[in-house]
Amino acid sequence: MILIIDFGSQFNQLIARRVRENKVYCQIEPPTITISRIRALAPEGIILSGGPSGIYEKHSPKVTKAVFDLGVPVLGICYGMQFMVGALGGAVHAATKREYGFAELAVKAQAKIFKGVGKKTTCWMSHGDSAETVPPGFKIIGSTENTKIAAIADTRRKFYGLQFHPEVAHTAEGTTMIANFLFDICKCRPTWSMAAFAEETIAEIRERVGEKRVILGLSGGVDSSVAALLIHHAIGRQLTCIFVDNGLLRKDEAKKLKAVFAEKLQLNIRFVNAAGRFLKALAGVADPEKKRKIIGKIFMDVFEAEAKKIKGADFLAQGTLYPDVIESQSAFGGPTSIIKSHHNVGGLPAKMKLSLIEPLRFLFKDEVRLLGKTLGLDDDMVHRQPFPGPGLAIRIIGKVDRRQLTLLREVDAILLEEIRKAGYYRKLWQSFAVLLPLKSVGIMGDKRTYENIAAIRAVTSVDAMTADWARLPHDLMGRISNRIINEVKGVNRVVYDISSKPPSTIEWE
Ligand code: XMP
């Protein structure tokens, strides 16, 4: 495995991605990691990441210098290179010329890290400070116009430093350099695969859980579904999934979930129908935040009451993903395992004295999808668009009642059917309908109608932080609108949302 020390760069996840794309397993750890923990991980190589600090700043992040005595290759990137220079006896100075953006790197000397790389190659820089002198044993292997010491190597000890960022796509031959580090320098083998990860994780879960029981809140979303399936493979019916039907789900959602997870995959699931409780509490409430709070609180109560019925449950499993774990561990402190507020079971482990199992905590979203596929989950489930915890309640603007829920379910089902048929489902981050608390006049046959308005929202996004409204083909939009107005009694007008995020959000409430 490759150990990545997180000095706080915004590109750290990219370094991890690049390593894993080469089928080599890696983990990102904070600089406070101890040398004994590093030894236990037995890395084949260490990457010191970039970061926003200067190495001489008082509170700049530092990793134990013992990493240089392990006999393991080290690659320092940007701040990581400067840290290595400082730690091994070279000097760093605040650059007179800042270098930001593209630069041409001239390769000055043969080194394994540049195997197959052109003599002149484009690299991407983002730094103020730079190395002034190289430590004993190092030589300069690459320079740019502004940065003489842009790449260094101590080939005997297998230490390499790159002032630029090989992990970003703008560094034209960065992937070659990373592959060189992994295979030529660290001698890693490309053996990490999802099947291997699944096998290892299943064995670990089995060992940790023993004869005990695990509970998991199954929502039907990709993360909780894959986590459930993985744990099910490990401990079978010692896992109890709790699925709460809050009455705010899409059409046939509970039915579909039952068919896939309980019947086909044979998971042990408790279905709790709490629709009445949720709807009663929501009656007459129009404020979005109030609606969210009510839903969160009831979910927690229902889940807890159900969990308590499961005797001997010592563990709570969650589908927490790697980006959340990385975000929660600061570059300057130790890792602090956060519990995602996810399905609002956040407070439960402490309250019920449960230990957490987070089998996906080292995976990125696309890796989770791949794992789901490896475990035999249908494509339909693996590639589901996200659906918010508060469900349709935040897609009915204002007060929520059963009639509106039925209307919105029908509208949403037609929309999704047409989006799927047109081959757009996977191209979109989300596509859904919103029911507005407005009526407008229409004409159907010879009759005047006065009915609801449905808004269609379809967005593209990579991480939901920003999103753009999808440019759906007009004929597809036409079909969606026609079908909704013709087939759903109670809706006589369809509008399309053309706002991006920011300044709008994806959901309307
Ligand atoms: P916004 O509307 O903030 O949404 O642009 C960003 C993403 O988060 C989803 N979302 C939620 N997911 N519980 C969830 O599990 C929630 O309360 C919630 N609110 C928004 C939304 O669907 C989008 O993918």
UniProtKB/TrEMBL annotation:
Residues reported in the UniProt entry to bind ATP: S219, G220, G221, V222, D223, S224, S225
Cleaved signal peptide residues: none
Pfam families per record: GATase, GMP_synt_C, NAD_synthase
Alphabetically ordered keywords of this record: ATP-binding, Glutamine amidotransferase, GMP biosynthesis, Ligase, Nucleotide-binding, Purine biosynthesis
EC number from the UniProt entry: 6.3.5.2
Key word ATP-binding present: yes
Keyword ATP-binding carried by entry: yes
Domain of life: Bacteria
Pathway: Purine metabolism; GMP biosynthesis; GMP from XMP (L-Gln route): step 1/1
Recorded catalytic activity of this chain's protein: XMP + L-glutamine + ATP + H2O = GMP + L-glutamate + AMP + diphosphate + 2 H(+)
Catalytic residues in the record: C78, H165, E167
InterPro entries: Class_I_gatase-like, GATASE, GMP_synth_C, GMP_synth_GATase, GMP_synthase, GMPS_ATP_PPase_dom, NAD/GMP_synthase, Rossmann-like_a/b/a_fold
CDD domains reported in the protein's UniProt record: GATase1_GMP_Synthase, GMP_synthase_C
Domain GMPS ATP-PPase: 192-384
Gene Ontology CC terms, in alphabetical order: cytosol
Any GO molecular function: ATP binding
Coiled coil feature spans: none
Subunit-level organization: Homodimer.
Free-text function comment from the UniProt entry: Catalyzes the synthesis of GMP from XMP.
NCBIfam families found in the cross-reference section: guaA_Cterm (TIGR00884), guaA_Nterm (TIGR00888), PRK00074.1 (NF000848)
PANTHER family: GMP SYNTHASE [GLUTAMINE-HYDROLYZING], GMP SYNTHASE-RELATED
Protein name as annotated: GMP synthase [glutamine-hydrolyzing]
